[in-house]
Amino acid sequence: MKNVQYGTRTIEYEIVRNNRIKHIYITVERDKGVLVKAADSVSVKEINKLVKHKSAWIVKKLESIGKSVDFGEIVTGSRLFYLGKSYYVNLIKEEREDIEVEFIHSKFKIKAPTKYSQESLQEAIDQFYQFKAQEKITKLVRKWSNVMQLFPEHIAFRKSKTKWGSCSPRNRLSFNPELMKLSSSLIEYVVVHELAHIVYKNHSKEFWALIKKFIRNYSQKEEELKVFERKL
């Protein structure tokens, strides 16, 4: 796997040799990632130069794939959302018993046994989001509780298909680990939103007035949440 730098982003690509090809072709596929097809006579230096020249187009195609509703199976070249952006997945099969999910160098590195199921792979990804959510959101709740002087009785993390977060009548907050797919500013907004429900258990004018004290552009955040929901 070769790579080139595009700003702060690393574009990884695979070279496919075929002597019947007269020109260099670049394709971006969900299941295979970035492929560069060229004859044996074309040097890696020439290919690298072309990939750099086409970097903006490649990134746009990768983002387009990442925003697709149906991600299909998780394979090398798939895209996963993390903190508001979609990132390349590098799936490595090796002799091991469990599945390990890491986010390093702006990509997901997933190590899996030679035989695994998509269900077990998704479970490992869910556990990654769960761990990161507990780590990040717990700190944000502590921060905003002190700012707003509103303190929950308990904090839990549960996956949900319909809610980013909730506040029970007993002021117990629950957050969806899928929040880690959102940008940091949207995660922070959801935290403030749920803390405000400690005072108001509805979405009354008073509730939104309280939100506005801390997040002045709250209506914009609500719209951004709706836009992002359509990408997932």
Your description of this structure?
It is a single chain. The chain is α/β, with parallel strands linked by helices and 232 residues long. It has 2 domains: 2-116, no CATH class; 124-229, 2-Layer Sandwich (Zincin-like), CATH 3.30.2010. 38% of the residues lie in helices and 27% in strands. It has helices at 44-53, 55-66, 118-148, 184-196, 205-214, 218-229, and strands at residues 2-6, 9-17, 25-29, 33-38, 79-82, 85-94, 100-104, 107-113, 154-157, 165-167, 172-175. A 4-stranded mixed beta sheet has the order 1-2-4-3, with helices on one face. A 4-stranded mixed beta sheet has the order 5-6-8-7. It has a 3-stranded mixed beta sheet with strand order 9-11-10, with helices on one face. A hairpin with a 2-residue loop joins strand 7 and strand 8. Helix 3 crosses helix 4 (184-196). The two termini are 28 Å apart. The relative contact order is 0.09. The model is unreliable at 67-71 (pLDDT under 50).
Radius of gyration: 22 Å
If helices are DSSP runs of H or I spanning 4 or more residues, what is the number of helices?
A: 6
Query: Could you give the order of the helices and strands?
Result: EEEEHHEEEEHEEEHHH
Strand order of the largest sheet: 1-2-4-3
Q: Report, as a whole number of angstroms, the end-to-end distance.
A: 28 Å
Helix residue percentage: 25-40%
Oligomer: single chain
**How would you classify the helix and strand content by structural class?**
alpha/beta
Report the average pLDDT across residues: 89
Low-pLDDT windows of residues: 67-71
